[in-house]
Amino acid sequence: MNSADLAGGQPTPLQGELLGQLLGEMLERRGGVPYYKFRSMHVPHWAELDGMEAKGWLKRDNDHYYVQSTAVPLIDTPAARERLANIERIYAALRAQYLQTQLRPYKVNELAEAIELTPEVVLEVLRHMMDTVAWHMGSSLNVALEEASVSPGEKILQFSTFTELAADVRSWQRGPTYFPGTLADDRPQEDTRAESVPTHSPTALTSAWPPARTCLQGFKFDEIKDIAGLAGFDVTAAADLVQGSGSNVTKGQLLAAIDRQLRDMDAQHTARFLAILIEEILSREPEAEEKLSGHLSRLGWSFIDGKLLPVALFDSGALEDMPADAHPDLLKAAQRLRDGDLGGAISAAAGAVDAAVAKVYREANLGDPTRATFQEGCKRAMAARGILVDLEGRLAELQWQPADAGLFARNLEGALVRGAYVMQTLRSHMGDVHGSKPILRALVFDSLRWAELLVGALLVVKTDPAPKG
C-alpha cells in the first residue's frame, strides 16, 4: 500500500470497498461489526484497516468496528448514499431549528415528523451522527422514544451541509504533518480532536489550562458555559449556576466548577477538553490567537493548526553531544520561538547551521563558506566530513549488506541536503528579526528540527565503536 494514500483525504478503491462492506454490515446489524471476525476474513488488508482507524474513518470499540459518520460521504454504495441522504435531511432540519430557537432541544418525534421519516430511523441515524461532537451540544437518545431529543450547537451554522462538516472534521484526523519530533500523538482517539494533544499525564496537560482559562474570562457567562460544554464540561453538574435577575452567581464560580471537573479528568479526557476548548475560543475570538500562543509558549505548549503540542524542541542528549559553540544559536532559536518571535527563531536556527558549516570549512580548508548558497554549503561540508563513508562503514560493522548500507546512506544524505534547501527557503521567505514577514507557525518547528539534525550531522563526532551483533 502506498503510504501517501493514507495521508490523503480520500480513500483508495480498496479502502472504499472495505468501508462499504463494513458500513453495509453495520447497518444490517444495527450495531458494530465483530472486529476479530472481520479482520480474520481480510488478513491481506490489515494495513488498510489500521490506516483507516488511525485516520478516524473507523473506530474500534468493545471489539467491534464502527464506520464513523464523517466517513460516510467517502463511500459510494447504495447503503452509504441512503444513509448520507438521511443524515443530510436531519442535519438541515437541526440547522434550521438552531437558527430559530438556538439552544432548545429538538424532540426526535417532532424532527421525524418535520422531515417525513419514521422516529425509529431518525433515532438510529442520530446515534450514528453523535460520534462527532462538532455539530451538537448533547442529546438524550437512550430514553423512551417519546422523550428522546437532541440539542444542535452553534457550530452547525458554520457548515451548510453535513458533508462539508465531515470534510472539516476529517481534516483534523490526518495526524501530525510536521517534521518528526513535534511529539504529536498519532494514536486514534475516541474524539477526533483528542488527537490534537499528546496524551501525557493530566498534570502536564493542565499546565495549558491557565492561559485558556484567562481567555475564557473575557466571554459572557453563558458563552463560557457553551464553550466549556462543547469541550466536554458536564453542564448538568453546574445546572444551578445560572445568571439572571437577582442572581449572585459569578463567572468565577462557573470557572471554579470547570476547574474541579478538569482536576478529575484522566489524561485522555483532559487532552480532548483542552483541544476543543482552545479551538472554540479561537473560532469566536480569532484575534486572541497571538496572545494565547504567547502564554502557551511560556508554559511549554503551542497551539498549531488545531493541535496542542509540547514545545520539547531539542533533545538534551543530542545537545550534550555537540560542541559547546553549537549551543548558543540553537538555544537562541528555541528561546525566540518560546517568546513568539517566529521570524527570529528561523533566523537563529539557520545561523546555527551557518556556524556549523563555517567550522567545517575552516577545519577542511574549503575556503569562504559565504560564497556558496546555504544548501551548497551544507552539502559540501557534509562531503568534507565524510558522513556518507562513515555511515556506510558503521552499518557494515552491523552486518548490513554493502548495497543496502550504500542505498540507506545515500538516501539519508539526500534527506539532509533537501532539509538544507527547506531551511534555505524558509530563511529567505520567513526568517526576519524585525517581525515584518508573514509566517506559518507550523513551519518554524520544522526549521528548528532540521537545524538540530544538520548541526548534529556536521559537528557530532562519532567515536564510539559500533556494537557487534
Report the strand count.
8
Calculate the terminal CA-CA distance, rounded to whole Å: 32 Å
Order of helices and strands: HHEHHEEHEHHEEHHHHHHHEEHHHHHHH
Average the pLDDT over all residues and give the rounded result. Answer: 79
Helicity range of the residues?
A: 55-70%
Give the tally of structural domains: 4
Q: Estimate what percentage of residues fall within beta strands.
A: 5-15%
Tell me, what's the shape? globular
How many helices does DSSP assign? 21
Could you say which structural class the secondary elements and strand pairing correspond to?
A: mainly alpha
Low-confidence segments, given as residue ranges, are: 1-8, 173-203, 463-469
Biased composition (Basic and acidic residues): 184-194
Region (Disordered): 179-205
